């Protein structure tokens, strides 16, 4: 979706930007949609920040926006080096990113603030894991097990219950597993390879992505997008939802966690039909272009506001459906048309 997002940013009447794109691949999808392109190391590479700082100075860049989790962490840690080269980094401080990477710490902070979080138990041993899944009703009920520090469904397991089978999309992604058979203690011990685990009952659709922008812990804007495909991948479109309750919930989450950038908050729905936090991502959503398509350019607003240019966003007053289709664009040089 990078080409569509870059097209929207380029046409923004407030920003009127000069766009510099970087990617680890020389064949990045958005390469043809930027004014200048550089191949750089992966975001977690030790030389990544130095290379970005060099590009910032050479291209006179004003703002750097991460597009992946490793980039967000590296750029947040290297913000002084980027600032010395001339640019602001649109990412929350490292301490905030460390907080939201740890789901247990995130949920604890929100509980202290009086905000709703999913039922959950964190465990660090096979015995505690077996006790926790039994406490949530397994093997009769389905139960979710995932790394405390996981992201994007990586390492998640759905333990399928005999009386409560989860919807097909839950645990059906490439990063997830559905466990239909009872695992042995030896098999369960391997689940701890990435550290402590979180156990929780099933959450349900609808699933929402909420784009939230905050400056130094003060929430500025939120836009609620309901997924057509609850699993998220492949992205098939969104319904932009006019829902002040969900918007308020996410603005309160942003302030309780001290967010200081544009973030993607993932919500699912609990047994009472209430929106409930799944996780806060350290960078903007990959599908944020859906908001721009619907007339709510939250990324453009976040960029402008971070640079000191007022760019207020109106809240949607009705639901708006945004679909996605492959984009085909003819790209020829002017000389080829003569």
From TrEMBL:
Record's keyword annotation contains Methyltransferase: no
GO molecular function, one term: ATP binding
Domain of life: Bacteria
Cellular component aspect of the GO annotation: cytosol
Record carries keyword Ion transport: no
Domain annotation ATP-grasp: ranges: 107-307
InterPro entries, A to Z: ATP-grasp, ATP_grasp_subdomain_1, CPAse_ATP-bd, PylC_N
PROSITE patterns: ATP_GRASP
Keyword terms of this UniProt record: ATP-binding, Ligase, Nucleotide-binding
Pfam families (UniProt xref): ATPgrasp_Ter, CPSase_L_D2, PylC-like_N
Official protein name in the record: ATP-grasp domain-containing protein
Species for this entry: Rhodoferax saidenbachensis
């Amino acid at each position: 979706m990078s080409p569509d997002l870059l097209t929207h940013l380029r046409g923004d009447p407030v920003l009127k930007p000069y766009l510099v794109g970087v990617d680890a691949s020389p064949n990045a999808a958005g390469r043809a949609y930027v004014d200048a392109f550089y191949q750089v190391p992966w975001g977690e590479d030790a030389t990544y920040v130095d290379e970005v700082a060099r590009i910032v100075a050479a291209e006179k860049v004003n703002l750097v926006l991460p597009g992946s989790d490793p980039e967000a962490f590296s750029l947040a840690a290297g913000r002084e080096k980027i600032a010395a080269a001339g640019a602001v980094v649109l990412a929350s401080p490292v301490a905030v990113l460390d907080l939201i990477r740890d789901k247990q710490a995130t949920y604890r902070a929100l509980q202290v603030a009086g905000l709703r979080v999913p039922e959950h138990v964190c465990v660090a041993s096979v015995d505690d894991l077996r006790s926790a899944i039994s406490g949530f009703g397994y093997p009769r009920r389905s139960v979710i097990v995932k790394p405390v520090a996981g992201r994007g469904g990586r390492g998640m397991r759905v333990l399928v219950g005999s009386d409560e089978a989860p919807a097909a999309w839950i645990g059906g992604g490439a990063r997830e597993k559905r466990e239909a058979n009872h695992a042995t203690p030896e098999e369960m011990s391997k689940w701890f390879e990435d550290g402590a685990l979180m156990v929780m009952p099933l959450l349900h659709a609808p699933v929402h992505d909420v784009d939230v922008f905050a400056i130094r812990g003060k929430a500025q804007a939120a836009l609620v997008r309901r997924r057509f495909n609850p699993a998220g991948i492949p992205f098939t479109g969104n319904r932009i939802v006019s829902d002040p309750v969900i918007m308020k919930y996410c603005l309160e989450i942003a302030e309780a966690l001290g967010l200081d950038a544009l973030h993607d908050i993932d919500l699912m729905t609990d047994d009472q039909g209430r929106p409930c936090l799944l996780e806060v991502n350290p960078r903007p959503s990959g599908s944020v272009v859906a908001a721009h398509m619907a007339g709510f350019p939250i990324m453009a607003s976040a960029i402008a506001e971070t640079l000191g240019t007022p760019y207020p966003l109106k809240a949607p007053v009705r639901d708006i459906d945004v679909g996605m289709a492959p984009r085909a664009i003819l790209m020829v040089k002017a000389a080829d048309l003569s």
